[in-house]
Amino acid sequence: MRILVVEDHQKIAESIKTGLEKEGFEVVCAYDGGSALDVLESLSFDCVLLDIMLPDISGFELCRYIREDLANRVPIIMLTALDSLENKVEGFNCGADDYLPKPFYFKELDARIRALIRRNINQTADIIRYGPFSYDPYKRLLRINEVEVQMSKRELELMELFLKNPQKVLSRDFIKGEIWGESEEGKSNIVDVYILYLRKRLRPYGLEKSIKTYPQVGYILDIA
To answer: pTM of this prediction?
Structure first.
């Protein structure tokens, strides 16, 4: 199980890292929000430990970005000396799953991490599978032949729609309504543009032709 520790004080981060590694976790440390985002976009994690006081952006902002912009539902525990009721409420409103004030007992941190991971596993039991594809809708994690594939938020939403409707022709209007709704982003050719993006993502795996075009109608995911 892989944990991300986002903490600007290196000694504290390394201390947490050492303790968690003794408990069998794989641990990655990030010392600011920007580094944390870079890591989150390249690796999947089972839990994030997030400090509020970071040098570039606040932990609250980072938590909100993880939830809304990255659409990542990884369990998040906020670790901070800011333990007022207002801070706790803001943390939960930003999308945190738990809030542990500093200083804390390491055994309690370990127990909270394991409890969140257990809950997360129960919520991610229904993996969507089709051919070489597997998709975890809770973690927003796509794998091809068990290899994790990096995609943008919109690309993942589009791929999820196809995986929920394999071997079914989806019209452009249906796709546009499901993914973009009535937003300004939903211009007339947006579906075709994102199909091109998706095919480029699938090309390294030899699967770009799995998304087929039905002229004047729409698209279908079919690996046959």
So the answer is: 0.62
